[in-house]
Design goal:
This protein is α+β, with helices and mostly antiparallel strands. The protein has a single domain, classed as Cytidine Deaminase, domain 2, CATH 3.40.140. Helices cover 24% and strands 24% of the residues. Strands 1, 2, 3, 4, 5, 6 and 7 form a 7-stranded mixed beta sheet that branches. Helix 2 runs parallel beside helix 3. The longest helix has 14 residues. The model has no long low-confidence stretch (mean pLDDT 96). It binds tetrahydrodeoxyuridine. The site of tetrahydrodeoxyuridine (THU) has 13 residues, from strand 2 and helix 2.
Length: 160
């Protein structure tokens, strides 16, 4: 028997330390919280992603009275990108959360299902997809979605 450590890394930084492209994406993710439909949780999540040709796709959480029928912000954006631009890799994804009218101080943590979809997206296009989690006090930047979900289930697992 042997203990194996699974490592992942992220960069913790401030808004000023982001690149201009990263700041632009974060700004859109923040703006997108206004388009959240979240009457049940009052937790407004915005997402924005950049495709390899520079196109920006937006998302926000969409809730439903039948709770499981709703969808997280990240997945609305990732599925919209896949549906409309299937041939363009997603290079960067930013997420911002607003609770009771205030952006969260610490970044919101994407749920497991969103992490699975993020890593599938990355795997699908073969490159890395950066993930930026916005918080008022600190921002986390993951160079690769895989860092949010070590030991991910991918298509190769289906082959046994
Ligand atoms: N939510 C997201 O949009 N993204 C996440 O990664 C976590 C949770 C949404 C789902 C639901 O509408 C609300 O936040 C409260 O869970």
């Amino acid at each position: 028997m042997k203990t194996i450590e699974l490592k992942s890394k992220m960069l913790k930084c401030s808004y000023d330390e982001l690149t201009a492209d990263q700041r632009a994406l974060v700004d859109i993710a923040k703006e997108q919280t206004n388009n959240s439909y979240s009457p049940y949780s009052n937790f407004r999540v915005g997402a924005a992603l950049r495709l390899s040709d520079g196109t920006i796709v937006r998302g926000s959480n969409q809730e439903n009275a039948a709770y499981p029928s709703g969808l997280c912000a990240e997945r609305t954006a990732l599925f919209a990108a896949g549906a409309v631009y299937p041939d363009l890799p997603v290079v960067s994804l930013a997420i911002a959360c607003n609770a009771n009218g205030q952006f969260t101080k610490v970044p919101g943590s994407p749920c497991g299902a969103c992490r699975q979809v993020m890593t599938e997206t990355e795997h699908r296009y073969g490159g890395k997809m950066e993930v930026i989690l916005y918080g008022e006090d600190e921002i986390y930047v993951f160079e690769s979605a895989k860092d949010l979900l070590p030991l991910i289930f991918v298509s190769e697992n289906l082959e046994g």
